[in-house]
Structures are given as C-alpha cells and as structure tokens.
Amino acid sequence: MQIFRTVLGDVPAEESGRILTHEHLLYGYPGAELDHRTAFDHPAAVERVSRQVIDGMIPNGYNTLIDMTPAEVGRHPQFMVDVAKRTGINVVAITGFFPERMGVPYYWRRQTIEELTEFFVRDLTEGMVFAWQQTPYKAGAIKIATGQESVFPKPSPVGAYGRHVHEVEDRLIRAAGKAAMATGCGINTHIDPMDFEVTNPGREQLEILDEVGMDLSKVIIGHAFVPPQVNMMREILKMGANVQLDHIGIPWRVGSAEELDEAMANALIELIEDGYLDRIVLSFDRWFFNPRATVTESDPQLENEKVNLNYMFTSWVPRLKAKGVTDAQLDQIMIHNPRRILSIAV
C-alpha cells in the first residue's frame, strides 16, 4: 500500500488529489524567529493561510501540499497541523536543511553522516522536534539543498570532491540518501539558478545520491528550470530522476512572469515530446505567510508572496492547453507523477 505521511498521519496515496510539490506555509530566514518585530498571532496567521488554501487550492482539485520549509527556515509542526485541520488538505512536512551558506545551523554542521541520517529517520518515523520539545507530527519527505553562495547571488565555487557543493552539503546529501532508503520516502531538492552558469547542479546532487545507492526515480530536482535549461533538464532525466517546474507566475531571476511562464511552457512541451511526461511535476514555491520584520529596498516583498493560487488554472494551464497539452497529460503531471515519487510503501 502506498501512503503519504502527513502531519496528521498516514493517508492512502489515492486520496492525494492534485499535489503541489514545493510550497511554504510559513517561511522566515534563519534567525527571524528571534526578532521581536516578527512575532505573530498564531490563530490569526493560521486563518490567513487557511483562507488562501481554501480559496485557491481546493477549488482547483488540490488536496495535498508538500511544505518544503526546512527546520531553520520556519518549519513549525503545530502551524502545519492547524492549517491541515482547518482546511482538510494533506500537509506533508519535510526534514532537511537549506543551503550551507544560508542555513544549516552550527550544531548540525558538526554532525557526521551517521548522525544526520539518524536525525532524518527519526523525523520521519518518530516525529519532529520543535523548540526543544518532541512532537508526534512526522515528516514525510526529505529536502536537500545546494547553492546560494552569498546574500548577493553568484555561482557556487568548487567544493567537496570537485563539485560545486560545499562539504557540509555533501554530508547532508549522503545522509538524506541513506535515510530515504531506510524509510522509503522521496527526496525533493533545492538548487540555485546561478549554478547553471558553471555546472549542472541537479546532476551533481544526483551523482552524490547515486554514490550511496539511492533510487533516483524517487528524487525530484527542484528549480531545474531557471533559466529554462532544457538540455540540462534532459541530463537530469536521463539519470532516472524527475524535474520540477516551479515559480509559475513568479519571475525568479528573470525579467517578468510572462517571460518565465512562456519559457517553462515551451520546455515542458519539449520534454513531453522527448518521452518524459511521467517525470515532470509542477509547483509555485509560494510563501503563504512570511512574518518579516520590515519591507525595505534591500529586502522587498517577493513575488513568491503575491502570486494567486488560482493562477495555475487561470493562466498557466490555458497556456499549456493552447500548445496542445491534454487534460490526461496534466493529470499525469499534477497527480500521478508526484504520487509515485513522494508516496511511501507501507
């Protein structure tokens, strides 16, 4: 039997509905939770996020959301539980960390591969720890992340073992692969678009996972599209992994949402024509609530916080259909592919 391990317990995979594979219900950069200015009213925030889910996910057939927020970037088990109860959707939490330069607290940078593996497995099988307290709420997938060399984006330098991967990230990826194999869960990844200038970051992540024996068909390479590098996506797919087209309606590192939407739509058509229909997933990478301290010129509100959840079906799906994509193909991408990759056999 295949299940999704949600924060409210295991749910049969066939009850998934459409699936958003990379979202953030609550998000804040490491350290934001210590700032007096970011303190928020928990019930009001739950209601605010739940309203977005009810208005934008449920009418469009979405019933499952993978909350890709790492522990040091605002992962809040009780918040996810409360949103799941309020809305009725399946919320799947992840275990894992953000890229080394932006995340991975000092405590965890010192851990061995074995210790990191144990941490991931316990999050997945016993429940996540929050503010020093064990919770019964389990993670259901693992996140790995590389890139983002500095606050001002630039390509990552050559790091561990000749790859553009920092040594701590290399350890975390190996631990993630071992934990995924031990539990049967899937892995979804973060890469930074700048790294496409110097390498194929998705390929490098997969090489490390392959070295520990991970089944690459259970891996999604996230942000695999910016800028839409179709040949690099093909390289990832030829290794047996999956690619995620995300930031739909969100102009990340490009001039406009229109530019990126059109480029991603054309890339998706090419990949379908190449025979990779069963290896593509879609998401927004939306921040539903970011309790930032202030909005400034150097730290503006991002488009991730603004895009309407109905945008997928009011704008992008019509764009795809105009290019010949069928309802059956969309169901494959939005339901069956993520269900295969991210569900767990029990």
TrEMBL record:
Q: What is the lineage of its organism?
A: Bacteria, Bacillati, Actinomycetota, Actinomycetes, Micromonosporales
Q: Which Pfam families match?
A: PTE
- Positions bearing N6-carboxylysine: K143
Hydrolase keyword on record: yes
Record family assignment: Belongs to the metallo-dependent hydrolases superfamily. Phosphotriesterase family.
A molecular function (GO) held by this record is:
zinc ion binding
Source superkingdom: Bacteria
Point out the coiled-coil segments of this chain. none
**Entry protein name:** Phosphotriesterase
Origin organism is: Dactylosporangium siamense
- Glycoprotein found in the keyword field: no
Keywords, sorted A to Z? Hydrolase, Metal-binding
